[in-house]
Design brief:
single chain; about 260 residues; mainly beta; Jelly Rolls; 2 domains; 8-stranded antiparallel sheet; 4-stranded antiparallel sheet; about 5% helix
Length: about 260
């Protein structure tokens, strides 16, 4: 046997032993995979919807004039009514003028007409019952205004005039309509949500209402706390609306949502 064969066999055995002991002659190291960091949700204690604000749907009226009776218009007879009235130097307080009209009886042969300071503010064939008519305060004067009430002719009904029996009142109207709208963002939908409302002052008997994403979550006249279904909330933008019932004004200290 040649001399190199025992040496070759010994070297081969040594390599096999090294391979078994160290797990192989060549070790390949893989680079660790870099994971993209995911944004962590922001955890909230509370979300403020507003503080120190006013909401209102409120109107106050000031009576300026009253007129009642009947008006007619036909081929043979015509009866109009005219009076003068003042606005008691309160035009700066008014947002608009308002007419309350009660038609007691009519044959509807023609139109009912209301004229203030040569401006036709209403002209229509008017059914029996109560009606509200609003007009611009710009046509009024502080001291002297002329109101005329009349009927339009009965047209081809030459044998009978148009007839209206009515009661009419003119008011100056002061109105205030204010709502509170707030947007807020959430990174997650909580499992429990509660609305807290603190009221400073109320005028009128209506309710204060809070809507979130169009859902009614609160209705009350004073301080209140109300749990609501958190499923009406959503990740991303949410909208809250705070309003007052007609005829009511609220001065609100604060409104907010707590997550517990």
């Amino acid at each position: 046997m040649p001399d190199f064969i025992p040496v070759f066999i010994a070297a081969t055995v040594s390599l096999l032993l090294l391979f078994l002991f160290f797990g192989g002659l060549i070790t390949i190291t893989e680079e660790p995979v870099q994971e993209t960091a995911q944004p962590r949700p922001i955890y909230y204690d509370k979300i403020a919807l507003g503080s120190n604000f006013t909401v209102a749907d409120y109107g106050e009226t000031y009576k300026l004039a009253n007129l009642s009776g009947n008006v007619t218009s036909g081929l043979i007879s015509e009866i109009d009514k005219t009076i003068s009235f003042g606005a008691s130097n309160r035009l700066d307080d008014f947002d608009q003028g308002k007419i309350w009209l009660d038609i007691k009886d009519t044959n509807l042969y023609g139109e009912f007409i209301i004229i203030i300071n040569n401006n036709i503010v209403y002209r229509n064939a008017t059914l029996v019952g109560e009606h509200e008519i609003r007009f611009s305060k710009d046509i009024l004067n502080d001291e002297n205004n002329i109101l005329t009430v009349k009927a339009a002719g009965s047209g081809w009904r030459i044998w009978a005039p148009t007839v209206y029996i009515y009661d009419l009142k003119i008011y100056g109207e002061e109105s205030e309509e204010t709502t509170k709208t707030t947007s807020f963002n959430l990174t997650y939908v909580p499992s429990y949500a509660r609305l807290r409302v603190y009221v400073y002052r109320r005028e009128g008997d209506g309710y204060l209402k809070v809507k979130i994403n169009g859902y009614n979550v609160y209705r009350g006249r004073s301080d209140g706390f109300k749990s609501f279904d958190p499923d009406i909330l959503r990740e991303g933008e949410n909208t809250a609306e705070i309003i007052a019932d007609p005829g009511t004004k609220y001065e609100v200290e604060s409104v907010y949502i707590t997550f517990e």
